[in-house]
């Protein structure tokens, strides 16, 4: 099985190490988190670090929701929380697992979430019966106030949020955000990037592409056609055509543009691989 995520290893982890080693006056707990994050080996490690950080800072719950483009305009919703199963079951039954319907998405500038802010929601005209029920249900499990951190991505239509919540009253929550808001914001954004890199890596590896398949993709992205690739490999054109067919079958798409687009989405190919964008629009000769 080939190792995917070279782009991840060379950029994301490098960035995390750089943040840890810089002379920026980052809080000690944030520096520790980033150091541990740079050593994470899978999604489970990332999630455990987030829960550990939240607990260390006195917050009980972490909820992580985001969308991911899976096929052109198709979005996949992902949701993870350490809240009790009955709360998550209720949330799924009430809102159908669709992030667009979860009521805490657009409240008070995407920052404060919880029953402690009930009056603020009412004054802002955001207190619908559905949202009030959400607040009551959350308060029942000890989620009375929380910080919702919006998560941005480089891909259009993808969005999400990280919520760190607990039982603090309103004033204590504001004091908490003043002291730890930067730590949680940086930690959430970096964790989101690393978590998604692992997701892409897992998905890419599920297609079981060999190093030969990967090299075919890279050479195709550089504008090389079947004849040129055959020359570079010192193999027959029939052999290269077979590799192309296997790539298409394993990725589940047929056209050159679709193959290139999917490989780019999975980070199998990165921007630097595409030296001739016009060649992507052509068919394989």
Question: Can you characterise this structure?
Answer:
With 285 residues, the chain is of the alpha+beta class. The chain is 56% helix and 13% strand. The chain has helices spanning 6-21, 28-38, 43-56, 85-95, 108-111, 118-123, 129-140, 170-206, 211-221, 226-233, 237-251, 256-265, 277-281, and strands at 61-71, 74-81, 112-113, 145-152, 159-166. The chain has a five-stranded antiparallel sheet. Strand 4 and strand 5 (159-166) form a beta hairpin. Helix 1 runs antiparallel to helix 2. The longest helix is centred in the middle third of the chain and has 37 residues, at 170-206. The model is unreliable at 1-24 and 104-110 (pLDDT under 50).
Please identify which CATH superfamily of the largest domain we are dealing with: Transcription factor LuxR-like, autoinducer-binding domain
Q: Shape from CA axes?
A: elongated
H/E element sequence: HHHEEHHEHHEEHHHHHH
Distinct helical segment count: 13
How would you name the oligomeric state of the polypeptide chains in this document? Answer: single chain
Instruction: Tell me the structural class.
Output: alpha+beta
Task: State the distance separating the first and last CA atoms.
Answer: 29 Å
- Share of helix among residues? 55-70%
Low-confidence runs (pLDDT<50, min 5 residues)? 1-24, 104-110
Total beta strands: 5
Strand order of the largest sheet: 2-1-5-4-3
Rg result: 23 Å
Q: What characterizes the major β-sheet?
A: 5 strands, antiparallel
The CATH architecture classification of the largest domain is 2-Layer Sandwich
- CATH class designation of the largest domain: Alpha Beta
Instruction: Return the average pLDDT rounded to an integer.
Output: 82
Write down the domain tally: 2
- The CATH topology of the largest domain is given as Beta-Lactamase
Approximately how much beta-strand content do the residues carry?
A: 5-15%
């Amino acid at each position: 099985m080939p190792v995917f995520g070279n782009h991840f290893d060379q950029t994301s982890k490098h960035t995390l190490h750089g943040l840890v080693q810089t002379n920026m006056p980052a809080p000690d707990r944030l520096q520790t988190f980033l150091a541990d994050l740079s050593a994470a080996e899978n999604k489970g490690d990332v999630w455990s670090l987030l829960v550990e950080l939240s607990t260390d800072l006195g917050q009980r719950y972490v909820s992580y929701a985001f969308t991911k483009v899976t096929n052109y305009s198709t979005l996949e919703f992902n949701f993870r929380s350490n809240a009790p199963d009955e709360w998550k079951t209720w949330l799924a039954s009430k809102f159908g697992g669709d992030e667009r319907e979860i009521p805490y998405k657009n409240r008070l500038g995407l920052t404060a979430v919880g029953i402690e802010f009930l009056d603020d929601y009412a004054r802002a005209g955001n207190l619908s019966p559905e949202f009030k029920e959400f607040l009551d249900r959350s308060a029942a499990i000890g989620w009375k106030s929380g910080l919702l951190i919006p998560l941005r991505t480089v891909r259009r239509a993808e969005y999400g949020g990280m919520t760190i919540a607990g039982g603090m009253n309103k004033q204590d929550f504001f004091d908490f955000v003043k002291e730890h808001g930067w730590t949680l914001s940086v930690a959430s954004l970096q964790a989101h990037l690393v978590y998604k890199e692992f997701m892409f890596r897992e998905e890419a590896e599920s297609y079981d592409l060999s190093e030969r398949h990967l090299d075919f993709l890279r050479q195709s992205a550089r504008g090389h056609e079947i004849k040129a690739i055959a020359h570079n490999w010192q193999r027959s054109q029939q052999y290269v055509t077979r590799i192309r067919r296997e790539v298409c079958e394993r990725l589940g798409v047929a056209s050159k543009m679709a193959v290139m687009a999917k490989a780019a989405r999975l980070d199998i190919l990165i921007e630097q691989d595409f030296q001739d964008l016009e060649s992507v629009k052509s068919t394989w000769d």
